[in-house]
Amino acid sequence: MYGLTAAHRLMPLGTVVRVTNRENGRSVKVRVNDRGPFVRGRILDLSYGAAQRLGMTVNGTATVAIDVLSGPNGPKLSGDDLFTVQVGAFSSEQNARHFANGLSSKYPDVYLVTLQTNQNTIYRVRVGRFHEERGALRMADRLSNEENLEPFVTRKEP
Fold first, then answer.
1. Residue 131, domain member (yes or no)
2. Distance (Å) of CA 114 to CA 31, 100, 137, 157
3. Are 93 and 124 contained in the same domain?
4. Same structural domain for residues 92 and 147?
5. What does pTM read for this prediction?
6. Which of 9, 66, 105, 124 is least buried, going by the fewest C-beta atoms within 10 A?
7. Burial class (CB in 10 A: 0-12, 13-18, 19+), 92
8. Are residues 93 and 150 in the same domain?
9. Distances from the Cα of 5 to the Cα of 70, 120, 123, angstroms
10. Which of 14, 35, 70 is the last residue of a domain?
11. Which candidate, 76, 65, 126, places its Cα nearest to that of 100?
12. pLDDT one-digit tens code per residue, 76-111
């Protein structure tokens, strides 16, 4: 919570970025260590500690500039990272499997990713593995139109 971390949907975990609050010019270096944000229109969620340094805890949001400083394994980001489409997250494994089974009859490569947090386990339902973001975006549009879902594109963790 008080560390200098951030959540981003696409940047590889471990990426270091400089975030600058455009309203007051303050900057902070953070490491991407989580996926998110899950609020439409937002591209980055900051930890409370990072938000404090940027002077944005009162409003909760701010317009920022993001500069990638290094990838997870040094200064160069890999072009081989895969993308996927997340269509749901469940606290019940049974509900996640039921939802995934319903999609797997219509869409290729539907799978679960389990995330263990300090409090509980989350079962994420994802569709596809794409070498380019463009293909994942097409699948997200298809899922949105055909299934009335609100999917989002994210990086597939190894």
1. yes
2. 22, 13, 23, 11
3. yes
4. yes
5. 0.62
6. 105
7. exposed
8. yes
9. 14, 21, 23
10. 70
11. 126
12. 455 556 889 999 999 999 999 999 999 999 998 999
